[in-house]
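Q: I'm writing up a methods section and want to include an example of the input and output format. Could you take the sequence below and give the corresponding predicted structure tokens, formatted cleanly so I can copy it straight into the document?
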Amino acid sequence: MNIAVASHIALDTIQDIQGTITESLGGPACYCSTTARKFNLKVKLATKVGKDFSQDYRLMLRNKGIDIDDILFTDNPTTRFRIILKKDSRELFLVSKCSPITIEDIQRIETNCWIVSPIMDEVPFTVLQEIVKDKDNLEFVMLDPQGYIRTLDPDGRVSFLNDLKLDVSGISAIKVDPEELSALTGGRKGIEGMKFLQIRKGIKFVISTEYRIIRLLYNKMYYSIKLSDVVTPHSTGVGDILTSSFCCAYLKEKDPLWAICFGAGAVQAALEANLVGLEKVPPKSKIEQNASYYYNTISFQEI
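A: Here is the clean output for your methods example:
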């Protein structure tokens, strides 16, 4: 069983609250893949990196069971972000952007599940549609639309679109934060927005996140998990860890309730690790421990 990720690898320069600067591998291609390897799933990447992507980083990923094939290298520089951490937020600046992912890139891959998670519109809508319509050996398509609602200010600062017209037909699951949910649903929020995506757009599993709360809408059941409060500035990547954990658990168990508990358990463990970059991806044993707790405490209601 394997999982594929369509997204750029990113090189992140992270400045913490004290002003300390750390260079780190990032992006959903890294976080989702590393998480999937914790579940012992094979990983295939539809991504692009530049010739500035070091052999040290390539070896680091290979040691985690993730291969960056020669065909993924391009003449454009690797996507780079500068992240400035604040007490309760962060500022994001795009420094460079690699080549877009193409239909040819995804046609080379056979997989049980796709995670499509652009970080800066590098997965064109035509590529997303090609992924969805390819039903051979494909059980599941998860979309994180973060990179579709991002836009750039003149100074390179990343801001967000208020409205996004995106064809999500054929998507199995989606993970959204409040800004993404509003942009995709014409300003709808909370359960109303989640129901819009499920009923009007036909998405089977709708996951929404906000500060320390993870929600799932499946059929007519609404589930909610409240995470323990953890004080850490190092939350970059936890959304990708959630997405990947949900997909991996669902592929193995075919139980969305267990899957969302695994997702929440992975986020809790990653936050508690209080580590920068990929080092925050937790071991499966810790994810399972937290998932068992959340399975017995999850709130739910029929809507």
